[in-house]
Amino acid sequence: MKPSIVILATGGTIAGISQAPAQAGYRPGKVDVRQMIQSVPDLDKLARITGEQIANVGSQDISFDILIRLACRINQLLNQNDIHGIVVTHGTDTMEETAFFLNLTVNSPKTVVMTGAMRPANAISADGPLNLFNAVAVAADPDARERGVLVVMNDRIHGAHSLTKTNTTSVETFLSPVNGLVGTVNYGKSVYFRYPFRRHTHLSEFSSRFCQFPYPALPRVDIVYACIDMPPDLIDCSVACGAAGIVIAGDGNGNMNQATVKNAAKKAAQGIFIVRSSRVPTGTVGRNVEVDDDACGFIVSDELNPAKARILLMLALLKPTGRQQIQQLFYAY
Ligand code: ASP
Questions:
Q1: Within a domain: 317
Q2: Shared domain check, 191 and 123
Q3: Based on the domain organization, do 8 and 68 belong to the same domain?
Q4: Can you tell me the distance from the alpha carbon of 221 to that of 315, in angstroms, rounded to the nearest whole number?
Q5: Residues near ligand 1 with C-beta < 6 Å?
Q6: Residue nearest to atom 3 of ligand 1 (CA)
Q7: How many whole angstroms from 59 Cα to the centroid of ligand 1?
Q8: Mutate which of 57, 60, 119, 153 for ligand 1 pocket (most atoms within 8 A of beta carbon)
Q9: Distance of CA 163 to the CA centre of its chain
Q10: Residues 93, 231: one domain?
Q11: Ligand 1, atom 7, residue with closest C-alpha
Q12: Looking at the structure, do residues 184 and 248 belong to the same domain, yes or no?
């Protein structure tokens, strides 16, 4: 019997419509899940497909409210014996954040695959239909299990921990620069190279919180972008607005100017969680390299970019915890 796959649609360019097929301007989130399924030839040969509309927005408008509803719906569905996998369609702008959030909050070893498109549904050479075909093939493939949340785009299979968007317009936008690809998929035939190294899904300590009411409210964590002559009072603004934690998108190995280091250390001493990440797209941020993290009370993001570091810190702050425990989470997830 064919596996049962549920497609959960959230919008994005894959559901977008442009005024003319050869024009860059378009509106995301215009096509619904039923039309999207119908636009892909032979999808029903891969699996028994059903679809649900979770949202229909450009992924720049994905909120934590939508993310929590999505995670909880996935957990409900995967709890059913007759459902084998999930495909989430999503805009590419914040795909890596949603993938990482789901990687930490899905409470099942069954496969969850995200996909999207760089070109609207009616554009010349729209990439959405083949991406959706490949995503369903991977979700239906028993070999894809236990690899965490996957993102399938442009024949590549990425892990949620490692992928990042690198180009504003090209269909080859996602790369996994730190750890490499999980595999490849071509017209539904997949090859896998590795299992993700970091903890995820049913092995994540956060995932059981997203299975039943009441769903947790996430604390505010801000990202502050470092640059030449960075104003140190950006940190004060975040704290004044209620941030419990701040991720610094640092220069190089998570650096910021001396004035900001001093101010951030002052805030860390007052109980604000400061994580040093990097605005550089590849490489890790290490402890005590140019900044004395031990003395300043900072945490380093290790492999996580600022957007993903923010998500991990928000989840970590759901329960009372200390800096050293959070540092260990950054090495584990
Ligand atoms: N802005 C769009 C979105 O993220 C871009 C895309 O889907 O490619 O929804």
A1: yes
A2: yes
A3: yes
A4: 10
A5: 12-13, 28, 58-60, 91-93, 116, 118
A6: 91
A7: 6
A8: 60
A9: 8
A10: no
A11: 91
A12: no
Which domain does 223 fall in, by range? 219-332
118 CA → ligand 1 middle, Å: 7
Determine which one of 10, 13, 164, 201 is catalytic: 13
Residues 118 and 243 in one domain: no
At position 245, the amino acid (one-letter code) is: G
If one residue of 59, 89, 94, 170 were mutated to test the ligand 1 pocket, choosing by the most ligand atoms within 8 A of its CB, it would be 59
pLDDT (tens digit per residue) in 155-169: 999 999 999 999 999
What order of strands is seen across the sheet that includes strand 48-57? Answer: 48-57, 4-11, 85-89, 111-115, 150-153, 156-159, 183-186, 189-192
Ligand 1 closest atom vs CA 61: 9
* Residue type at position 239: V
Report CA(58)–ligand 1 centroid distance (Å).
5
| Cβ atoms of residues 332 and 324 within 8 Å | no
| Residue 213 within any structural domain of the chain | no
| CA dist., res. 56 & res. 12, Å (int) | 7
277 in the same domain as 192: no
179 and 35 part of one domain: yes
Q: How many domains does the chain have?
A: 2
Residue 122 resides in a domain? yes
Q: Ligand 1 center to residue 41 CA distance, Å?
A: 23
Residue 169 known to be catalytic: no
Same domain as 308, residue 248 = yes
Q: What is the CATH number of the domain that holds 278?
A: 3.40.50.40
- What residue has token string 């954040």? 97
Closest CA relative to residue 115, chosen from 138, 134, 89, 145: 89
Tens of pLDDT, residue by residue over 127-150, are 999 999 999 999 999 999 999 999
In a domain, 214, yes or no: no
Which CATH number goes with the domain that contains 192? 3.40.50.1170
Instruction: Give 167 Cα–ligand 1 centroid separation in angstroms.
Output: 12
pLDDT tens digit at each of 333 positions of the chain: 899 999 999 999 999 999 999 999 999 889 999 999 999 999 999 999 999 999 999 999 999 999 999 999 999 999 999 999 999 999 999 999 999 999 999 999 999 999 999 999 999 999 999 999 999 999 999 999 999 999 999 999 999 999 999 999 999 999 999 889 999 999 999 999 999 989 999 999 999 888 877 888 899 999 999 999 999 999 999 999 999 999 999 999 999 999 999 999 999 999 999 999 999 999 999 999 999 999 999 999 999 999 999 999 999 999 999 999 999 999 999
CA of 173, closest atom in ligand 1: 8
